[in-house]
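Table 4 source record.
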Amino acid sequence: MSLTIAAAELEQLELAQSAIVSRLEHDHTSDWHEAVSGALRAVAGADHATLFQSGPVPMSHLTTYDEAATREYLAHYVHRDPVTREVAAREIECGCAWDVITPQALRETEFYNDYVRRHALYDVMSFRIANGSQSHLWLTLHSEREAAAAAEVRRRVSVLRLLLPSLRAAVQMDGRLAAWTEDGFRTIDDQREGVLLWSTDRRIVHVNPALSQVLAADPDGEAIRDAMIALARELLEGGPANPLPTVTRPVRTALGRFVAVAVRAGEPLAPAQAMVVLQRVTATDEELRRRYGLTAREVEVARLLAQGKRNADVAAALEISPYTARRHTERVLLKLGARTRAEVAGRLGE
């Protein structure tokens, strides 16, 4: 059957094609989904669109009608829907309800009378594109009024099918981007240094476990986080035309000294635009105990010696006798292999 495309339809097809191939222009998959579903709805002359990413647990990414109807569908009607079930069974990538059931047979079902008519979701047209071995992107288009003839719905699907190759390629690319990003985040989570990812829309994209631990343990954790965010913003202020390679800032807290370094995140970590790494300059108490074999009391003495305190100052600060302070000092110097308080400071990174 030949298909004649009107000038208005051709313009809508071109707009839809542009939306489909715009995946790399969007930081978030959900933003791309919204652009594509809106463009395809215009091509099909549909009133509503629903997009699902199927998998172990179906999840609605977006819908243009009452979300309560979507929840009702997932809770009660997903297994009573003869159209979706048959589309999946026949692996139809682009089609309509009349490809799998006759209008008369559908109107006799509980699904049609209790769900479709009540929510005015007629003339189902859908895309079902594989996105990995166990996942599919479902984009379903509906009209609020039922078409007088099934042939009209079939014609709309024929127009939509012209976009199928582009949509298939874009969905598969989106899947690869998601896997690439997941690998990048997993690598960051394995780092021993704290990492914060920041996006251009002024939000934290990700905080790795190492940084979460530092922020929770340090009384100045909120100040550390704010300093890292400020650094990310400073890095991005230059914009793509004049990007700064890195921005570095010292951060001092009650528990030690750090250096925060911000760099551009790169594509594998989208939607993050800046990555801020927190490097500890001073060792934690636990690190000092493990590295030099110090006791908890000797760690306290070592930090006071690193500040240039004399034995009398150590005794007063720890409320111990000068004799005990001198013995602690001798043991600390011996364990650190240091001869002066300046060398102690060097060992501790003070």
